[in-house]
Design a protein that fits this description.
Helix 1 runs antiparallel to helix 2 and helix 4 runs parallel beside helix 5. It contains 6 helices and 28 strands. The chain has 3 domains: about 200 residues, Rossmann fold, CATH 3.40.50.410; about 80 residues, Immunoglobulins (Immunoglobulin-like, Sandwich); about 100 residues, Immunoglobulins (Immunoglobulin-like), CATH 2.60.40.10. The protein has about 525 residues and is mainly β. Strands 22-21-20-23-24-25 form a 6-stranded mixed beta sheet, with helices on both faces. A 5-stranded antiparallel beta sheet has the order 1-8-7-4-5, with no helix packed on it. It has a 4-stranded antiparallel beta sheet with strand order 12-11-14-15, with no helix packed on it. The radius of gyration is 25 Å and the shape is globular.
Length: about 525
């Protein structure tokens, strides 16, 4: 179930899914490793780059953002109904009025920051559209944003719901019922039923309506004459794009289920050892998944190479970054080149006193490098606004996610309170990595340093990310190498939930292997 963004007026269109994260094993304590054990890394040999960064040819081409609607708070896979708080991120200081529309009809008019309103949604829930229109004090258009709530878009899944004994034409049979959830943009092409390896039924006409959860129910009679304990029934579903999935159940001893559990839950997981180091070489049996205390079977465990990555890179281009600009830019370009495989994507956000989406999600490394080359340092720092803005850029791109923020550490221009970035970071469930230069002057630790560290850890910790606060530009490459290693050690775990359609799913994930713990388990809307 997705919250879909339809941008208008001030930026390229993007679409953002929303989910609430639950990472029971992700403790607030910092990892016991070289980076988080101490708040600051000791300086290494070598000095700072004191050269001035030259301005790129021409002005920045990315258009600044003005207003964005934040996805409403909800549980993973939960449908929204009744009065719901709709919040906005307003970046343009000229905004004086925000009008909210629900399905094209006026719903609220707000004239004071932070420009939020409680809007009553339909109950029972259904797909609805909310629009925010911003104007200046003189009534001039200042930007707009639109979201679609409760859009049903389940991942592709196949589940045998039950096997019921019976007779047909005097022969012993079982009625095999399967549920198939089909993504919104795809079509179900064929469903085949097998007894062991023999095809017994095939269907390619699916004009019947799917259930309220988007699940298509398909059934077939399978003969059971001469069945053995080794015989099984297999259901294979194929989409129009060629993707296939199957489910298998033994014929003997199978029990009927009153409801079809086809709600496939997909979790992005990072596991660490006692030293806080990311762990690989894991198997499904190394994990234990529970819902309301009941254990659920792990369906599949994917390694990072199996699932594409959507990576966000937000770079502080304020004037205070000028002394280290060239080195920062070169290290960031090398990081993108090494971290992205042929199937991955990344976007680039540039922030100083304003925010710009320099490059939307793309798999083109030359485009990303070109975007980095267009940046130059100037202005103040809107760090918390930048984190919020960056978290809104992932769109409906499937797969794993991560956001890396590079800054000199001091927020001097955000219109958002730090608590909003903290709350939204937890809500959306994207791992946030912050690489912060403690101070370009290398002076003693200040109260601003401590406040920044506390705020950043409240964002990075619950999302499974990290705060790296360093004293020298020469340490930045090592930090990016560490982040790249963590991205390569990410897993995606899937299982079928027993929760009713439209209810929040709150899984708990633990490790069965001694010495390991789950640092983060973040829900994903889609992985392919």
């Amino acid at each position: 179930f997705r919250t879909v963004y339809e941008r208008s007026g001030d930026a390229p269109a993007v679409a953002v899914p929303t989910s609430a994260s639950r990472a029971p094993e992700a403790a607030a304590e910092p990892d016991d490793d070289g980076f988080d054990k101490a708040d600051f890394l000791p300086p290494v040999a070598g000095g700072r780059d004191g050269s001035r960064a030259e301005r790129a040819d021409g002005a920045r081409s990315a258009r600044p953002a003005t207003i964005r609607i934040l996805p409403p708070e909800r549980g993973y896979r939960e449908l929204l109904a009744g009065r719901v708080l709709i919040q906005t991120l307003t970046i343009d200081p000229q905004i004086a009025v925000v009008e909210f529309l629900l399905d094209g009809e006026p719903a609220a008019r707000v004239t004071t920051p932070p420009f939020e309103a409680r809007i009553r949604l339909a109950d029972p829930p259904r797909e609805q559209t909310i629009e925010a229109r911003a104007t200046s004090a003189r009534g001039a258009h200042a930007g707009a944003d639109r979201i679609v709530l409760n859009r049903l878009d389940p991942p592709f899944a196949v589940r045998i719901a039950g096997i019921t004994p019976g007779e047909a034409d005097g022969q012993a049979m079982v009625r095999v019922e399967a549920g198939i959830s089909v993504p919104r943009s795809e079509a179900l092409e064929r469903v085949e039923f097998y007894r062991t390896e023999r095809l017994v039924a095939s269907y390619d006409d699916f004009e019947g309506e799917a259930g309220p959860s988007g699940v298509q129910s398909v059934a077939a009679d399978v003969p059971t004459f001469g069945v053995t304990p080794q015989d099984f029934v297999r259901v294979v579903a194929r989409l129009g794009d060629g993707r296939e999935l199957e489910d298998v159940e033994l014929l003997q001893g199978a029990q009927f289920q009153a409801e079809i559990d086809v709600q496939l839950v997909q979790l992005q997981v990072l596991v660490v050892d006692r030293g806080g180091n990311p762990v690989g070489d894991l198997k499904p049996e190394d994990f234990e998944v529970r819902e309301n205390g009941e254990r659920r079977q792990v369906e599949k465990l994917y390694v990072s190479n199996d699932i594409p990555l959507s990576l966000g890179l937000a770079i502080d281009s304020s004037g205070s970054m000028e002394p280290i600009w060239r080195q920062t830019n070169a290290i960031a370009e090398a990081f993108l080149d090494g971290a992205l495989t042929w199937r991955d994507q990344a976007f680039l956000v540039d922030f100083d006193s304003t925010l710009r989406l320099v490059q939307p999600l793309t798999g083109s490394k030359p485009l990303l490098a070109r975007g980095l080359g267009r940046l130059f340092p100037q202005g103040n720092t809107a760090l918390y606004d930048a984190i919020l803005f960056s978290l809104l850029q992932y769109g409906e791109a499937p797969g794993r996610r991560a956001l890396v923020v590079v800054t000199d550490g001091f927020d001097s221009n955000s219109r958002s309170d730090p608590t909003r970035a903290i709350d939204f970071g937890k809500r959306l469930g994207v791992p946030v990595y912050v690489v912060a230069m403690r101070s370009l002057g290398f002076g003693p630790t200040t109260m601003e340093d401590a406040n920044l560290r506390n705020s950043m850890r409240l964002i990075t910790g619950p999302t499974g990310g990290r705060l790296f606060q360093i004293e020298s530009i020469d340490q930045m490459a090592a930090v990016f190498d560490h982040i790249e290693e963590e991205l390569r050690r990410q897993y995606v775990l899937t299982y079928y939930s027993a929760r009713p359609f439209g209810s929040a799913v709150e899984p708990e994930v633990r490790m069965t292997r001694r010495g390991l713990r789950v640092r983060s388990a973040l829900p994903l809307e889609a992985i392919e």
